[in-house]
Amino acid sequence: MALPKLAPVQPAHDKLRALGIVALNGMFDDMDALGVLRYAISDVLPDDLAIVSSFGADSAVLLHLVAQVDPSMPVYFLETGKHFRETLDYVETLKKHLGLINVHAIRPAVADVKRFDPNGDLWETDPDSCCHIRKTEPLEPITEQFGGWVTGRKRFQTKERGVLPHFELTSDDRIKVNPLAYFTDADVNQYKIDHGLPEHPLFAKGYKSIGCAPCTSVVAEGEDPRAGRWRGLNKKECGIHFDFNGAIASPMTAATRHTLWKNGAFIADPFHEWTEGSDPATASYTHVPLAVFLANKAAFLANPHPLGLLVSPGESIEDVEADVGRFASIAIKFPGFTDGRGYSTARLLSQRYQYANEIRAIGDVLQDQIPLMRRCGFTAFVVTHEPTRQALIEDRLPEVALFYQPVGTAEVPVGTRPFLRRVH
Ligand code: SF4
User: Fold this and answer.
1) Which residues are known catalytic residues?
2) H/E element holding 51?
3) Which CATH number belongs to the domain containing residue 388 in this structure?
4) Where in the sequence is the active site (predicted)?
5) DSSP β-ladder status, 272-273 and 265-267
6) From 119, 215, 237, 240, mutation site for ligand 1 pocket: most ligand atoms within 8 A of C-beta
7) What confidence tens digit (pLDDT) does each residue in 40-64 have?
8) Percent of the chain, pLDDT > 90?
9) How many structural domains is the chain composed of?
């Protein structure tokens, strides 16, 4: 199944913001699942919502609702390579039965599997990393293309999901819609009967929640329905329903003041600072100081999680030239307006090393610096200075028209150097 080619979209939640997500949850507390889904598709995020389905024991209910509202809504199935044969068959059964015409399988990167799980037993030794390379990572570029996604999570499933609302705002400003949040176990079963939905072939054998085969077991009578997932381990979620901070996204985060400016908007920052004593093997979404990286290089390179690098004044990016591709973000520190060393670091990264991920300016970033920083390859800026924040929001940055130190091949330098003088 080929993935559809979709242009990345900016989150467009103005309407939702105006209403306030908390108010929205209040409005829809009593709405039935079909009503929540219908409203989400028609009013909250039209043409900007997708579904991630596990095609597990209860998936038919949500997919049946989708089929009623819009059978062409994109449905993504995480084909981890670890599913029961019965689950793969069930994907085909439900597609046919419900008339879903836009179902896509997402697979992990072959290189990641080869590198981090060559024997196929990572689920046993480090299930968090296994879920990360098989689910979280492959899903990221997909969710980036949508303003929100629909999940089949329900309050009754676990203690942790007991507060799940219909609408959540994640820290990356996307919306998760949970139409079945208030469904009970009995509601799910009754819905399946009422609508004659085909059961997952393993359901009758005692599998009440079905994920990858190695991490799913039969549930005894009276047990939490998800007790059969990662049995014996202190793991309840695969990671894809976690917000960046590891919690279920909170509807109260809407008022957070973001300081990271990227792609024309202030957005939530998935990265955090390195704290002394952190484990290089398990760190995730952290800007690792360059010196710490060099001291623990082997452990960081074996770490499967997204990592960033922090370059401080006086440190040389040349020292990590061979490894820059390992980092999803490189943060360059500017301690003061007059310190220009960070510009050279960014130019080396973007021009000489062809580094294409995020180059971030942090520290004392001011309005006049940003156009110059952009020329050098910076793509993200941490801005706390209020006038600079306003200038960015109102698109009032000064333009740079004269280049004494040209960047790249497009800029024409001016100045007194003899080779620049025109011949008349
Ligand atoms: S559920 Fe188990 S096998 Fe599947 S990705 Fe997670 S750890 Fe790996």
Assistant:
1) 238
2) strand 49-53
3) 3.20.20.70
4) 238 (nucleophile)
5) unpaired
6) 215
7) 898 878 889 999 888 988 899 999 9
8) 34
9) 2
